[in-house]
């Protein structure tokens, strides 16, 4: 990691921050990874103004030119993947394999995907309409065309759990559609996003098209939302922060794309293959140390299979190695910060007080005296009114609630403020699909936690607004215009 303090990226240049720097901490060692810049409010607005100035020329570039730049950026990111993965591991706490394969490699893949996306058609013909003569004019046949146009300046506020894939999933489709961006990374691990900006600059992105600003508090993000030059905000993070951003966007009628919290329900029926369910649900214990909104952390199991499933999940958790992310044997690394670790531990203690039984975990790993580690924890004997069942914990904690009939299971799954991704495990696929259609969630996995990366992604209820991924992201970062003419 570079010992040099990081500078802001504004208008195509590297700019000294007005308010100094703050330390980025390795959650595995509690050591300083680097120094991130503290942007002033004026500098964030300067970045938005640079993006606005660059929007006109960039939006008029040929799609082939935008595609070529995004492709080159993917090549450059891939070229430097080992160094990028080391930094991502150090600042996010992800395991080495996750940082390499699920963070940096996925980030490069998303630039590659939206290089192709830049070439997707943006026009769609509408069937001609015959109009009778009237107050609006003479009779005639009227043709129509819908055209997807870029929105303008997009503020991208990204999450800490994946400092490559999440920003790339916003920046790449936004640029492909001809928008310009102001990126405000999560304060905990922003340094990787500056690496992404450097790759885009090397790939030939014109000055002002991509800008990156950071800050340790809320001020930089607030300025990136309320700037009068910003037309849209794309946010990934907590529902509470998303609500505040939505209020600010509403005052300016700014477009929004919100990917917010989740408390995914895993509906395990009496005819389920429990080995498959355990393997799928068990990944939430380990993947990003439970810091992933799509995890099935709320397990709803048919009462006849409850004991068997709990035993399987406990055994799965017992096989997970908790340790330093750089160690090859490590499956579960630290959570992002001391404050977040304390919050997860407080939820476990709350679960005890609410009457939940701690089957496994519930204490800090005794062999690790530094770092923000949480032992994978399984809570049983839970009921749907408990806060540990209803609230997003965002850590390696899974709760189990039994049900007796399909109707009750669906009702429990839907009795939630969230609706991002739910899951159904059943030996009868037709039955699983019928139940999936009744779940109030943006996505449902049937006998899998895998995803199709062209399928739309987003949530019902307080889990978000809008859809992205695949071609749906191109639609999310565009406005639809109608053009009508007489035939």
From TrEMBL:
This is Aldehyde dehydrogenase family protein. Keywords: Oxidoreductase. It comes from the Bacteria. Pfam families: Aldedh. The lineage of its organism: Bacteria, Bacillati, Actinomycetota, Actinomycetes, Kitasatosporales. Residues 14-483 form the Aldehyde dehydrogenase domain. The keyword Cell membrane does not apply. It comes from Streptomyces durocortorensis.
